[in-house]
User: Fold these one by one.
Assistant:
Number 1:
Amino acid sequence: MYRSPKKISRNYQLQLEEELSHIITWMELQYQTVIIIGDLNLNRMKPESAEGKLLLDLKVEHGLQCMITSPTRVQTLGHITTHSLIDVILTNNPELFKNCGVYDPGISDHVLVYGFIKEKFKSQRGKIIKFR
């Protein structure tokens, strides 16, 4: 998922929250596990801001947990460096993940987010074939 940082309308924040909530509700009805990965441009490191509150409300309303806890964008302008957590992995099933984190390849101001999902496979009963 990607959300542009530009505001499109006056009621953009409310419209964004409604649309994200609608998408998550639809996913919960279609599938039991919800995983949202992407650059939402909503900074989790500023929960007091409007965008941080929006993400926090979605987490509480839908029981989501963010698997990424480190900053995902580091920007340096002159001698001022800012850190933000705008690239996320949100899920309602955190036990599904073996490991999550960030990796900085050094080619962008964003780091890569990753998550390893535990393997699930059905063990099959052995077949017994009798022949003569």
Note: The longest helix spans residues 12-30.
Number 2:
Amino acid sequence: MTDAAPRGHSGERLLSVGRIIRPQGLNGETVVDLWSDQPSRLDPGTELVTDAGMLRVASSRRHKNRYVTRFEGVNFLEEAEALRGTVLWAEPIEVDGALWVHELVGAEVKTTDGRALGRVEDVEPNPASDLLVLTGGALIPVRFIVEHRPNEAVVVDVPDGLVD
């Protein structure tokens, strides 16, 4: 997430959750690439923020690895074409047990015995387990997180020899 992220009603930074790729058909539907693993982001009635204002989802259905989505007030091909490339932003949502990149980046990382390992600079996707990228370059699989306080601290239980 960049510093250019808009802010929501609560003043909290919004998360980029997807992008409108192109129109679908002639009646105002669009193809949306959803970046979030929460398909509820495109439930009917959901409001998404864009640089041009608010869009409210009228309907959405999964199609292959994307979503065909109609937004309220977008009824024609030309209106849908004008939305091509539009980034969709939304408020963070609470999901029990979920770890969110925006809550991990910047957090101080310590081992279960209190040894400081650095701060999280990024989270790198990896097929086996996403990796915390720490200041100094150390990589720690996310599966070793045992405690997390959003934006503050992460406690990891790492095997001996994983980090110096």
Note: The chain has a mean pLDDT of 88.
Number 3:
Amino acid sequence: MLYAVLKLIHLLSVIVWIGGMVFSHFFLRPALGELDPPVKARLMAAVLSRFLNAVLVLGTLTVFSGLWMIGRVAKQTVQAGLPFNMPLEWWVMSGLGLFMWLVLGHIRFVLFKRLRRAVDGLDWSAANRVLVQIRHWVLFNLSVGLLIVAVVVIGTST
């Protein structure tokens, strides 16, 4: 039962994380292009504050639930007297998932802090430059996340 609950938490966290990146990159950001720079920067800072804090928790849940599930399967396999050979899809998911979590940390703790400073200092050109950097990193992380989903769903062998 615990394994199923952790798998559900893992999957729901990934859905919100990836879905939020899709929404912000393809729907929210283009719609904000029509706003004046101060309004756009303030709104994005408010949205990103909520989203990045939530995704930091969800990303952490994703990492730790995934590691726990791998450990659980490994333990049960070894206890059954069999060798544990982690599937390649799990290696890809684990490695790239940890990488995504680190990129999220960079966005949240480096770039977002710069955005907050620019907004607080009413420096709209600096805020826009940081928003462009955030957009690029979000698109990168989204691409990695979608690659992980594809590898896990389709597999690495045919």
Note: Residues 2-154 form one domain.
